[in-house]
Design goal:
The protein has six helices and two strands. The protein has 184 residues and is mainly alpha-helical.
């Protein structure tokens, strides 16, 4: 679980961007450390967000962007009727299962990004009111967007986790590394 993004090797833009995406993934993964399924599914504020729901959302969102970039159908495409299920674990789903699913998406995304001829290669955006008509984005844009998307939800996860048991992001980094965290 990356906490510091190392400087890239000269000219390794792909590696640098993938490292920044992975750093944000690590923050989301750390947010559930030491929690039960019930704790991770709880919503300690007025928000509908839970930690397990955030994990599912970012994993499915990353898959959605990967499938758009590959120009392949998304096997987990949501509809208006199933959109809320992308923010909560449903019957038969668990944190461990969701992390395994996400690991597969991560591996596939990295392999795909490393295989495209150029980060300047583009793919079409779907028709949606929030995208420009007939819009296209580059692979570079995709990676930067994943940093943005994951960072936003990592911030949500920090707040939810701290509301549950007071553990902060730095304390969770120490916990993930088996290092004691100084108490105040």
């Amino acid at each position: 679980m990356v906490t510091h993004v190392p400087s890239e090797s000269h000219g390794d833009e792909r590696g640098a961007l993938l490292s920044f995406v992975d750093a944000q993934r690590g923050a989301l993964r750390r947010a559930v450390l030491g929690l039960t399924e019930e704790q991770a599914a709880s919503r300690p504020s007025a928000s509908e967000l839970s930690l397990s729901g955030l994990l599912k959302h970012v994993a499915e969102t990353e898959l959605g962007w990967l499938r758009m970039a590959q120009q392949q159908p998304n096997e987990r495409q949501r509809t208006q009727e199933t959109w809320a299920d992308s923010f909560r674990l449903v019957e038969g789903e668990s944190i461990a299962g969701m992390l395994d699913f996400w690991d597969g998406v991560v591996e596939e995304l990295e392999k795909f990004i490393r295989s495209v001829p150029s980060l300047d290669d583009t793919f079409p955006l779907p028709e949606a009111p929030w995208f420009p008509k007939e819009g296209r984005v580059s692979m570079r844009w995709l990676l930067l967007h994943l940093v943005e998307e994951h960072a936003r939800h990592a911030g949500h996860a920090d707040i939810v986790r701290e509301s549950l048991d007071g553990k902060t992001a730095f304390e969770l980094v120490a916990l993930s590394q088996g290092t004691p965290w100084p108490s105040a």
